[in-house]
Amino acid sequence: MTPEELQTIISTGLACEHIELSGDGQHWYATIVSSAFEGQRPIQRHQKVYATLGARMHTNEVHALSMKTFTPAEWAKQS
């Protein structure tokens, strides 16, 4: 899987203001900014992203995904 494919899958299932991805095709690192994360704890945010990947997490298309998730306000503070 390419970074572009993974970005398309995530952004199709979750409205994202920003996505950064790096990885080797199976092990990925992501920074995801979405207003859908408002009021959610980190585990809930990760579950929301995993839900967009569905079976891909179980079929080894995406073996591992490490992520940092932010709301737009949290992301603005990072800069």
TrEMBL record:
This protein's name: Acid stress protein IbaG
**Its domain of life?**
Bacteria
Signal sequence extent? none
Q: Which family does it belong to?
A: Belongs to the BolA/IbaG family.
What PANTHER family does the database record attribute to this sequence? BOLA TRANSCRIPTION REGULATOR, BOLA-LIKE PROTEIN 1
Enumerate the Pfam families for this protein: BolA (PF01722)
The UniProt entry, under InterPro entries, shows:
BolA, BolA-like_sf, BolA/IbaG_stress_morph_reg
Which species expresses this protein natively? Polaromonas vacuolata
User: What SUPFAM superfamilies does this protein's entry cite?
Assistant: BolA-like
